[in-house]
């Protein structure tokens, strides 16, 4: 079993950069969100498909574990569903 872990940093500022996160199937993964914009709805990130909802404190890193058991495309968004991103697992 591999001890390798994927980690992608996403900057939250007027949306998500990068907007599309690519991960390899079967390798443990986490996404580190860092909110640098005070806009209210960006203070939460959630994904029903990936099973997470997190508050994002301003200028702090919040890391979420992402299951990579299944290949596919999975959406995430801000608290008001105005800003969207995507996790692509291949």
Element order, helices and strands? EEEEEEEEE
**Rg over alpha carbons:** 13 Å
Which sheet architecture does the biggest sheet show?
A: 5 strands, mixed
CATH architecture: Sandwich
Please tally the helical runs, counting DSSP H or I stretches of 4 or more residues: 0
Domain EfeO-type cupredoxin-like: 4-89
Pfam family, one: Cupredoxin_1
Protein name: Copper-binding protein
InterPro entries: Cupredoxin, EfeO_Cupredoxin
Topology readout:
Blueprint: E1 6-12, E2 16-17, E3 20-23, E4 29-35, E5 44-47, E6 52-55, E7 61-66, E8 72-78, E9 84-89
Parallel strand pairs: 1-4, 3-9
Antiparallel strand pairs: 1-2, 4-7, 5-6, 5-8, 8-9
Task: Give a brief description.
Residues 4-89 form the EfeO-type cupredoxin-like domain. This protein has 90 residues and is mostly beta strands. It is 0% helix and 52% strand.
Task: Please explain how this structure is put together.
The protein has strands spanning 6-12, 16-17, 20-23, 29-35, 44-47, 52-55, 61-66, 72-78, 84-89. The chain has 90 residues and is an all-beta fold. It has a single domain (6-89), classed as Sandwich (Immunoglobulin-like). The chain has a 5-stranded mixed β-sheet with strand order 3-9-8-5-6, with no helix packed on it. Strands 2-1-4-7 form a 4-stranded mixed β-sheet, with no helix packed on it. β1 (6-12) and β2 form a beta hairpin.
